[in-house]
Amino acid sequence: MAWEFLTVYWREMIRFVRFKTQLFASLLQPALWMAFFGVAMSSNFNRFASAIPPPPGVVPVDYLTFMAAGVIAMTTLFTSLFGGISLLFDKNWGLMREMLASPMPRTHIMLGVSLSGMTKSFIQVAIIMAFGLLLGVQFFPGYPAARIVLAVLGIFVFVGVFSLGFLLFSSTISMRLESPEGLQGIITLLTLPLFFVSNALYPIQAFPPLLQVLSIYNPLTHLVNGIRYFALGTDFFAVGAYYSYTTTDLLVSFSYLVVFAAVMYVVARWTFQKAVVT
């Protein structure tokens, strides 16, 4: 059947809902980042940035609003990188052997896991935006209702493509490892460089030249660009830096994420086709 991946998807979502601790932690973590880190750092960054006046006619954005887009990206990154860990549990419990031996195409396994991870990311993004608005995040400034809907859809499209790429990457690693501890070690090694060598928390203009180059090739930077384009507009001033996004910039960032996801799909597909679980 062409829709067998939905069985894997549905199983992953049931697992997500039934594991109350995982569900609670995954939904609470982004809210805590917004409530503690965002609010605590906002006053400091706003005070430092107040010494630099914004250009005439440019809308100033406070730090809490600026970093809220980064929190959305950070949460999507963490959720996606850990998305493949369920495959490791299936391998350890003997379920993966049965799934690979079934008539279901192997690509449906990775698609089902990836789509469930994307759904989890969408849920978390919606929670972050709703909770952020309660804290005073000024997303969608002056937008009419129709534009807000389009902006939210745009954010979800960027989050979905980015999440798909890293979920496929996580699935590839999981199929090559034997223990969850190994995956956790790799994820821990990757998350900090990806997160801090990006524009999620602060402008990359202040980075050393090497880090600026690395940030340009960091998929997380392109996700943040897309989120800020839709949530804050094309021109704004934040943390002492002027930001201007054009349609070309948006298309470049989106194309970069699409290419990244496509490469990860090819790698994951090859890995699943060659996988042998004993």
What are the SSEs and their pairings?
Elements: H1 5-18, H2 20-49, H3 63-81, H4 85-93, H5 95-101, H6 106-135, H7 145-176, H8 180-196, H9 209-216, H10 219-232, E1 235-238, E2 241-244, H11 247-274
Antiparallel strand pairs: 1-2
Overview of the structural elements:
With about 280 residues, the chain is mostly helical. The protein is built from eleven helices and two strands. The chain has helices at about 5-20, 20-50, 65-80, 85-95, 95-100, 105-135, 145-175, 180-195, 210-215, 220-230, 245-275, and strands spanning about 235-240, 240-245. It has a two-stranded antiparallel sheet. The longest helix has about 30 residues, at about 145-175.
Throw out a few tags for this protein.
3% strand, 11 helices, single chain, 278 residues, mainly alpha
Provide a concise account of the structure shown.
The protein is an all-alpha fold and 278 residues long.
Strand neighbour order, sheet with most strands? 1-2
Per DSSP E runs of 2 or more residues, the count of β-strands stands at: 2
How widely separated are the two ends?
26 Å
- Mean of the pLDDT scores? 83
Question: SSE string, helix = H, strand = E?
Answer: HHHHHHHHHHEEH
Flag low-confidence runs.
none
Approximately what portion of the residues adopt beta-strand conformation? under 5%
**Mind describing the biggest β-sheet?**
2 strands, antiparallel
Assembly state (oligomeric): single chain
Radius of gyration: 20 Å
Question: How many helical elements?
Answer: 11
- Share of helix, binned: over 70%
Helix and strand content put the structural class at mainly alpha
- Outline type: elongated
